[in-house]
Amino acid sequence: MSLLETRGITVRFGGNTAVDDVSIGVDEGRITGLIGPNGAGKTTLFNTVTGLQKPASGRVLLDGADITRLAPARRAHLGMARTFQRLELFLSLSVRDNVRVAGDILRANTRHRVDVDKETDRVLSRTGLGDIAHLEMSDVPTGRARVVEVARALMTSPRVLLLDEPASGQTEQETEDFAGLLAGLAAEGLAICLVEHDLPLVMKLCSTIHVLDYGAVIASGTPKEIQESPEVIAAYIGTEEVTA
Ligand SMILES: Nc1ncnc2c1ncn2[C@@H]1O[C@H](COP(=O)(O)OP(=O)(O)OP(=O)(O)O)[C@@H](O)[C@H]1O
């Protein structure tokens, strides 16, 4: 059983089926990729998993428990954290304070007493943000801002981390550092689900990849299986290369 599972999730907007009967699992200690052309339903699936979007049918399970009807904050308290495709940071606050604001969720998630300042410093150092911790967010370039979002998510001490295009806007070097960070977090036991258009990065990091097209899973497998899948190649023709 995967730590996080969707079972037959379907989401409709009017007559448009944005997510079509999707069943996927996200395992502890692994990075699971979710890829697909623009509009395939990746963000809508994330929104359903985190509670921002109600599904027409299907269930979301965390550690075997049905959480389909829980509010987003309850899911955060159960150990689910995410980042957003469009950065959701406080521009007038420092990097440190952007991370520290998640301390309330951390307090709720941790049974024993927790020193939020100490944990903020630990997370900043773990994510390589120590050198820019004092900067106002508006002075931080997009590539590093993506890492700040991840740091804030980590601050809640999550079991599952959902990342929506976290490498977008990063330089090549930033993406390389970021890949090292994600691999390290997974090695420590975190369950990570990665939505990303940078296919070489997905191929490098993920143990399993699910491909969405028009809301439905058209292929699931290892990076090698995905790169060789005729369905995937057909879905990507004219849009992106599937080779790493
Ligand atoms: N709030 C909404 N109301 C109506 N339609 C929506 C809404 N959100 C998404 N959609 C539609 O649902 C489909 C899936 O969109 P979604 O953003 O989940 O795709 P995506 O795979 O995340 O795309 P991208 O890679 O561009 O981020 C699209 O057809 C989109 O237009």
Automatic annotation (TrEMBL):
Checking PROSITE patterns in the record gives: ABC_TRANSPORTER_2
**Which GO terms fall under molecular function for this chain's record?**
ATP binding
Q: Enumerate the InterPro entries for this protein.
A: AAA+_ATPase, ABC_AA/LPS_Transport, ABC_transporter-like_ATP-bd, BCA_ABC_TP_C, P-loop_NTPase
Keywords annotated in UniProt: ATP-binding, Nucleotide-binding, Transport
Domain (ABC transporter) ranges: 4-239
One Pfam assignment: BCA_ABC_TP_C
Q: Does the keyword Glycoprotein apply?
A: no
What's the name of the protein? Answer: ABC transporter ATP-binding protein
